[in-house]
Amino acid sequence: MVNINNRHDIQVALQQGMTLLREGDSQAASRLLREVLQVDPRNPDALHLLGLAALENGDNKEAARLIKRAIKANPAVDFYHENLGKALFESGHYRDAIAALKRAVALNGRNAEAYNRLGVIFRLQGREQEAVRAFNKAIGIAPDYLQPVCNLAQVLITQGRSGRAIELLEPAVERNPRLDFLHCQLGDALRAGGRLDDAIAAYRQAIAINGRNPDAHNRLGIALDARGEAEAALQSFRRAVEIDPGDIGARNNLGVALQRRWRLDEALEAFNGILGIAPDYPDAHKNIAITLKAQARPEEAAEAYRKVLATGVKAPDIHSDLLLMLNYTAAPQEEIHAQSLRWDERYAAPLGRKKAARSGAAGAGSRLRVGYISPDFRSHSVACFFEPLLQAHDRNRVEVYCYANVKQPDEVTGRLEAASDHWRSILGEPDAEAARRIRADRLDILVDLAGHTADNRLLVLAHRPAPVQATWLGYPNTTGMGAIDYRITDGIADPEGEADRHYRERLIRLPAGFLCYRPDERAPGVSRPPCLDSGHITFGSFNNLLKVSAGTIEVWSRILHAVPASRLLLKSRQLADEGVKRNCLGKFEREGISPGRIELHAELPDKRDHLALYGKIDIALDPFPYNGTTTTCEALWMGVPVVARRGERHSARVGASLLTHAGLAELIADDADAYVGIASELASDRDRLAGLRRGLRDRLTGSALMDAAAFARELENAYFRMAGAG
């Protein structure tokens, strides 16, 4: 330390203060600088340096206060304004930070650091073009200044301009071949450009320079995973975590990679490891929820989704996931309804706009413009019921617009596009922009087909792009949205009276059922009942294992006890995981059913193989309280009778609706005892089973469930009534 008695002493103290700051001793620097200020209270350099010390200690507010005093004493120093901008940026005051940084470059047009920080803030604000200009300005001033080079490369990658990012980074790597982080940046650009082999080489070069760079190992894992090298990717992620146990990104990537490979217990371990470091990390709770969902543990998954929302994130997709998951649980309808209203209040209602103008097309002889919006215009259950309607629509009565949010189009997408009058892809479009395009089409009615299922565009409907809006088909409950006027259903799935109070929308009940099915043309022929060859009855269900509730397992076990030597065949994608298989068998074993009586199958990639597997089932059992839909129709088409239990809410009454409109109401039970009785009685009558097997396909073909023309007329009539009522 020095004794401060005169101007020379002040200069020595300031130099010593700067040295202490560079050495990281901000506490000693602060003490010395305060001594300077006791002698010269308005010394701008002392105030500025003391502000930098406060910034180093994380006291951004105090840093800004001190640097503002320095600027007041000497407003002409550009780096004072630059560091004020830094302090304000760290405090989250972006607008004031921009003003300070602009003042810095106005004073010194060659302040590359100020331009770089301006670019960083512009990027955070989504002002990408301004960010690009700022980074380019910094690079033009100081070509060897690497921060703006890396920052600009990241922006270019997000803009899809990976080639330009590579051109920017390759010379930087050539000039600085021993900087591992530059090789990582180049690897990111190469990976974004689809050059996986070159990206992997770049990451490996970074590791060769610094084998303890966890970021390089993590990024290498991402690239290896994209190239399909699963085990090598997992090793890279694990190495990153080993080097830096606090690397949340690497732990998360490890968990996701394990999850995709149906190593679900290991995935949960990785995600729970994140919570040990950051208990409120939203992505960890989200991925735990996704993993629990994959393990067919809906109650626990719902609780994990609640924890995501409890972190304070505004995530309409996560909230939708929670709503969907509640339908798989025994949650009362009142709870689902209330949670749906909260979703609307938080995300949709604030976007509310005045209804789009009515076209006046609801009168006699007019042609309605009807729009359908969905992420599932592809090989998906929704398409099994939408395609027959689309092709049966009377084009003298309706003009059809399809708004596709489809991530991976396929041959079904192509068929639907060909069958529509107007096809619009809205994938990736902001909600307001998609709503603007729809509004420009001057629809009379817009029908959502997704509800709160994955990749929905409910927030597009929140902008009210059509004068009348409805929801149908893809989701078994209320959306909770004030912007959606109607929900299309029938009197069996939603009986008049009690059901109405659980919906925000007004219910429109179609007289012959709310579904119209078209079987897959690849379906093989109907085989004879397998019991005639095996000597025992095989029950089965190909439903999502999430639907196989504890109550379902208890009742199915009663059926197996009631029918000696019978078997149960289950098929679901969750059964690809060994832990899920063990858990499933354990649940039946606790009901007294030995594992030898249960046959488990994972998802079959080929649709024909999937349908052919129904040939091993004598009687299909519908789960509850969330019934099957497509699986019920598939079973009937393959000659397999389905026993269903009628429940209290829509998802628990779809089976009853389907069987009633297929002419099979005798297979519907109103309670557990009746369900066991119907299944047991049917199992005891081999002649009846054989007769059903032979005749079900013809019966289904002649039923309301497959009368597309009649279904389309009824729905069109409903549309005209809805459009007329506004």
Overview of this structure, please?
Helix content is 56%, strand content 8%. With 726 residues, the chain is an alpha/beta fold. The protein folds into 4 domains: 7-248, Tetratricopeptide repeat domain (Serine Threonine Protein Phosphatase 5, Tetratricopeptide repeat, Alpha Horseshoe); 290-350, no CATH class; 352-510, Rossmann fold (3-Layer(aba) Sandwich), CATH 3.40.50; 531-705, Rossmann fold (3-Layer(aba) Sandwich). The strands form 2 sheets. Strands 3-2-1-4-5-6-7 form a 7-stranded parallel beta sheet, covered by helices on one side. The protein has a 6-stranded parallel beta sheet with strand order 10-9-8-11-12-13, sandwiched between helices. The N and C termini lie far apart (82 Å). The relative contact order is 0.05.
Q: What layout of secondary structure does this protein have?
A:
Layout: H1 7-22, H2 26-39, H3 44-56, H4 60-73, H5 78-90, H6 94-107, H7 112-124, H8 128-141, H9 146-158, H10 162-175, H11 180-192, H12 196-209, H13 214-226, H14 230-243, H15 248-260, H16 264-277, H17 282-294, H18 298-310, H19 316-326, H20 333-348, E1 368-374, H21 381-392, E2 398-404, H22 411-419, E3 422-425, H23 431-440, E4 445-448, H24 458-461, E5 468-471, E6 486-490, E7 506-510, H25 531-534, E8 538-541, H26 550-562, E9 567-571, H27 578-589, E10 598-601, H28 607-612, E11 619-621, H29 630-637, E12 642-645, H30 654-661, E13 668-669, H31 672-684, H32 686-701, H33 708-725
Parallel strand pairs: 1-2, 1-4, 2-3, 4-5, 5-6, 6-7, 8-9, 8-11, 9-10, 11-12, 12-13
Helix pairs in contact: 1-2, 1-3, 2-3, 3-4, 4-5, 5-6, 5-7, 6-7, 7-8, 7-9, 8-9, 9-10, 9-11, 10-11, 11-12, 11-13, 12-13, 13-14, 13-15, 14-15, 15-16, 15-17, 16-17, 17-18, 18-19, 19-20, 21-22, 21-33, 26-31
